[in-house]
Amino acid sequence: MSYLCELFSLAGKTAVVIGGTGTLGGAIAVGLGRAGANIVVAGRNQERGEAKVAEIAGHGGHAQFLHVDVDSRQSIDELCQAAIKRNGQVDILINSAGVNHASPYLEVDDADWQRVLDSNLTAVHRTCQIFGAQMKDAGGGAIVNIASVTSDKPLSRVFAYSASKAAVANLTQNVAREFAPDKIRVNALCPGFFPAELNRAILDKERVAHIMAQTPLARFGEPEELVGATLLLVAPAGSFVTGTCVYVDGGFTGMRF
Ligand SMILES: NC(=O)c1ccc[n+]([C@@H]2O[C@H](COP(=O)([O-])OP(=O)(O)OC[C@H]3O[C@@H](n4cnc5c(N)ncnc54)[C@H](O)[C@@H]3O)[C@@H](O)[C@H]2O)c1
User: Fold this and answer.
1) CA neighbor of 245 nearest in space, from 136, 193, 167
2) pLDDT for 1
3) Which of 45, 104, 113, 144 is the most buried (most CB within 10 A)?
């Protein structure tokens, strides 16, 4: 095996990408598939999931779609059971499902608040528990929770979203400590700004100008630009990396203009 393969090959591993039907999760699923992992694209939209499966197959990879609604513990449990039944075990979990809601603070109602906290935070907690238990039985694994630049500092107008992503980073570090003896590494990937369905409505002209002024690379990210950092977090190359937050944001987090 070449040196690069020793460091980064995922051959023989199974990765479940929750939210693999979405923009960022989809790009990560394709990237991990191209690195040799057998991919379970998990989400609510079968059509999008099957399209991602076909894309991975087009690159010579192996993938399948499985349904999950992360707002339901039972649905996550069923996903985990189905993934194990089909693939023997799950070595890698990527948590990339997420929702957003923007409004002035006084207009945030309880239902919006709860919906964002449920899908962005409680779902990550549940998946870490459910998949972590099977990784423990299997002798190890790697989990990557997709957090955000707003895990570091709040973003205006997205109150529940910011709070949820700060909590995801905190939970990630706490679970990493808990799972370390079981050889399960847990890290957060914190993307900057990547145009997607989730944020299209809030990226108005004024906001984009602010973002660009604070981003040294002065552009949005391309979803494929998350693959390298994700690979580091799940591949043998990252075997001593756990409990950390990796920012892929064009320099946004480091700047204070
Ligand atoms: N796009 C960005 O700039 C950006 C930046 C930082 C963090 N993120 C995070 O990255 C992750 C992926 O977001 P994206 O940008 O690809 O958005 P996206 O809207 O393209 O994808 C989100 C996916 O999550 C799925 N999802 C939502 N609720 C679900 C549920 N209850 N059950 C199952 N699936 C559900 C959606 O169907 C969709 O496929 C999210 O956690 C988001 O918060 C995105």
Assistant:
1) 167
2) 74
3) 144
- Domains defined along the chain, listed by start: 3-248 (3.40.50.720)
Ligand 1 pocket member 194 (CB < 6 A): yes
138: nearest Cα among 93, 96, 176: 93
Phi-psi region for residue 112, left (φ > 0), alpha (ψ -120 to 50) or beta? alpha
Q: What is the mean pLDDT of each run of 10 residues along the chain (257 residues)?
A: 95 98 98 98 98 98 98 98 97 98 96 98 98 98 98 95 98 98 98 90 90 96 98 98 98 88
Which pair of structure tokens corresponds to residue 218? Answer: 């002065």
Residue 155: exposure state from Cβ atoms within 10 A (0-12, 13-18, ≥19): buried
Binding site membership of 29 for ligand 1 (Cβ less than 6 Å): no
Single-letter amino acid, residue 16: V
| Distance from Cα 96 to the centre of ligand 1, integer Å | 6
- For residue 202, the model assigns a pLDDT of 85
CA 132/CA 129 separation, integer angstroms? 5
What spacing in Å lies between the alpha carbon of 202 and ligand 1's midpoint? 14
The DSSP secondary structure of 198-231, one letter per residue, reads: HHHTT--HHHHHHHHHT-TT-SPPPGGGGHHHHH
CB-CB contact of 188 with 147 (8 Å): yes
Contact 24, 251 (CB under 8 A): no
Helices (H) and strands (E) in the chain, counts: 10, 7
**Residue showing tokens 């984009």:** 208
